[in-house]
Design brief:
347 residues; alpha/beta; Nucleotidyltransferase, domain 5; 2 domains; 5-stranded mixed beta sheet; 4-stranded mixed beta sheet; 36% helix; 20% strand
């Protein structure tokens, strides 16, 4: 209360004798959380109160290969504009950013990210600190999605593995206490570079042959569909939109490609199930939003290949939060930063 983070909101019925129970809530005017969820081709930006109310939400097309300086300058400008428009006079209490890259746990910089090589070794937090005088939290994009999914589920649904199938393929893993399983160096979840037996001998960007990212990511699915239906992509400049349209129309060639991709992903996830024994696996990404075929294929292979004990209580589902999962994870990280012991010591 003294530092303005908490305010009184009346009293609660104590249900007996004695003093009424004072009701305390996080202050609406103490600050807002600014969240930027960046992918290879998109950006979700949000301004959220400490009471977890979304004041502003915007989606933009970007190209992460434009590089860190222009992308981060654009992000800062838009987050500050949104804060002015939706929360005038209220300070930004924390900034949360996610990127499609694994981060070194010691230096907190992207390490040889395959989808954004020109970001390698760049300190995002130092760059954002030039624009914001508040805690800055940086996280991998799939980890933050996994944290958002975890926040919406009952406690017994962990350990949780979230798999994002997009420009790349990655996993975010949350343990029973809500902690992100990052591994010693921050490389946990790089499942896109697991080679599987059923995959065609396609070379991955990492140099290996048969990685599931090389044969089952969205660009790989589009390439294989183009080979079978080249005429279907001639009229559309946006291959992703065209592919999604084919799936919505139940095009046989596109659906078969998705099933094959699901089989490859399922093989890799069966290995993960035998290793980690998760309670729940969640699939997310553009393709899962337009067809159930990917989920069905993945589910079938996991139950067939993984050990019976590892799948006895396993639930395999699509995302409950969809495109808002990353924002939900950003809220969790933002609140943890605002309410951390370090922040109270600064006050």
């Amino acid at each position: 209360i003294k530092v303005g983070l908490v305010e009184r909101a009346g009293y609660l019925d104590s249900g007996g004798r004695g003093r009424p129970v004072q009701h305390l809530v996080l202050s609406r005017t103490a600050g807002v959380i600014a969240i930027a969820e960046l992918g290879a081709r998109h950006a979700n930006l949000a301004i959220v109160t400490l009471q977890q109310e979304i004041l502003g939400l915007e989606q933009h097309r970007i190209n992460i290969l434009d590089g860190p300086e222009p992308i981060l300058a654009w992000t800062s400008d838009n987050l500050r504009r949104m804060a002015r428009e939706t929360a005038a006079g209220i300070p930004i209490a924390a900034v949360v950013m996610s990127l499609p890259a694994r981060l070194d746990r010691t230096t907190h910089v992207p390490v040889r990210p395959g989808l954004m090589p020109n970001w390698d070794g760049f300190s995002v937090t130092q760059r954002l600190a030039r624009d914001f005088s508040c805690p800055i939290v940086q996280e991998n994009d799939v980890n933050i999605i996994a944290l958002g999914e975890w926040s919406s589920l009952p406690a017994e649904q962990a350990p949780l593995v979230v798999v994002k199938v997009g420009t790349g393929i990655g996993a975010g893993m949350i343990d029973e206490s809500g902690r992100i399983m990052e591994g010693f160096d921050g490389a946990a979840g790089e499942i896109g570079h697991i080679p599987v037996r059923s995959a065609p001998p396609t070379q991955c960007a990492c140099g290996n042959i048969g990685c599931i990212e090389a044969v089952a990511s969205v660009p790989a699915m589009i390439t294989r569909t183009c080979e079978r239906r080249p005429d279907a992509f001639e009229s559309s400049p946006d291959e992703l939109d065209c592919f999604a349209h084919l799936l919505k129309q139940a095009d046989p060639s596109a659906l078969e490609v998705v099933r094959e991709a699901g089989h490859n992903i399922g093989e890799a996830l069966a290995i993960l199930c035998n290793t980690l024994n998760p309670r729940r696996i969640v699939l997310t990404g553009e393709i899962t939003e337009v067809t159930d075929e990917l989920l069905a294929s993945v589910r079938s292979v996991i139950y067939q290949v993984a050990r019976p004990l590892a799948t006895r209580n396993l639930a395999i589902r699509q995302s409950q939060l969809g495109s808002l999962a990353g924002i939900a994870g950003g809220i969790v990280l933002g609140l943890r930063a605002v309410l951390s012991a370090d922040q109270f010591r600064r006050h």
